[in-house]
Amino acid sequence: MSSESTAGASAGDGSAASSRTRLFVANMDERVDEPALIKLFKPCGQLTSVEVKLHHDGPFRGRPRGFSFVEFASLEDAQRAIDRLDGKKVGTRYLRVKFADDASAKEAAERREESGAAAAAAAADSSTAAGGGGGGGGG
């Protein structure tokens, strides 16, 4: 089972133009699933793919990570989605919708997740290292 889901055919020519039809959708309410995302974006134009990102492991495994990617057939449809949905309240949160290649949105989201995991691991390591040298000493 995959942690990403895709609706429709994916535009796979890899051209710069196709990258401007891919949107990064952030600050999603955890109750927004793929059908809800499709329903929200479909009025803006022809969708070619939808990827709802899910947690891969840990206590939140299988639950939404709070961001997704939506791809449209045309730049005009993608821009329409940004104009209509960026800042729109969905559930308890206000969506952030932008072109996926703007400020490397995907990389920033993944870095944030990795740094959170690294910070938790570092905190655990420092608590055992600084926490009190239980053995040691004297001789």
Q: How would you characterize the largest beta sheet?
A: 4 strands, antiparallel
Radius of gyration: 20 Å
Poorly predicted runs are 1-17
Gross morphology: globular
Helix content: 25-40%
User: How big a fraction of the residues is strand?
Assistant: 15-25%
Q: Which features would summarize this protein structure in a list?
A:
139 residues, alpha+beta, four-stranded antiparallel sheet, two-stranded antiparallel ribbon, 4 helices, 22% strand
Would you mind describing this structure in some detail?
With 139 residues, this protein is α+β, with helices and mostly antiparallel strands. The protein is 35% helix and 22% strand. The strands form 2 sheets. Strands 2-3-1-6 form a 4-stranded antiparallel β-sheet, sandwiched between helices. The longest helix is centred in the C-terminal third of the chain and has 26 residues. The N terminus is likely disordered.
Provide a quick synopsis of the model.
The chain is an alpha+beta fold.
Topology:
Layout: H1 16-19, E1 22-26, H2 34-41, E2 47-54, E3 64-72, H3 75-85, E4 89-90, E5 93-94, E6 96-99, H4 105-130
Antiparallel strand pairs: 1-3, 1-6, 2-3, 4-5
